[in-house]
Request: fold
Amino acid sequence: MVRLFLIRHGETSWNAESRYISFTDLDLTERGGAQALALSRRLAGEPISRVYSSPLRRARQTAKAIAEPHGLKVKVVQDLREVDFGFWEGLTYGEIRGRYGDLIDQWSSDPASVAIPGGESWSEAIERVGEVFRKIFRENPESGVAAVTHGGAIKCMISYILDTDRLSLWKIRQDSASLTIVDLIEPNKGILSLLNDTCHLRDL
Reply:
């Protein structure tokens, strides 16, 4: 069994402004850096043998903080990147509604099959992150692993593992620097043991 510590990166300026962010490569804010350190302290005593990260700076910076107490190097995995928000990148929900009213209604109703202009559908993203699970299981058949990624990607991972109605993605909350734990029994079979926990951020 692989115990997978799924971590959303710390806060960026666009997260603080509630802007959609996928491939825009922002650094963590000062608060985001503090969040990463708080999570690092929480996980310092866990048996983590490998740390994977999305290629984006906000994830790599968070992953570095997680890896340091364990004396590990971060392994970058391209498929841990965020869902591609295409032409909606950098916009708030209100701005998207103003420009793409009908389409965002369709996307909200059926995110699994409606692609964002210039981006990808949830179905495409779920298949992509499913391959990450298979890769992690192959490389770490019996160990603890941390994977630092993004809110949308973690929602896709949970949907993949639970094999649940993909509309339920909207019912899953993922805060900055949150911790979710999945125990992988097989590459496509797992148990959701913890969801969106942020108790380590109480004093920030």
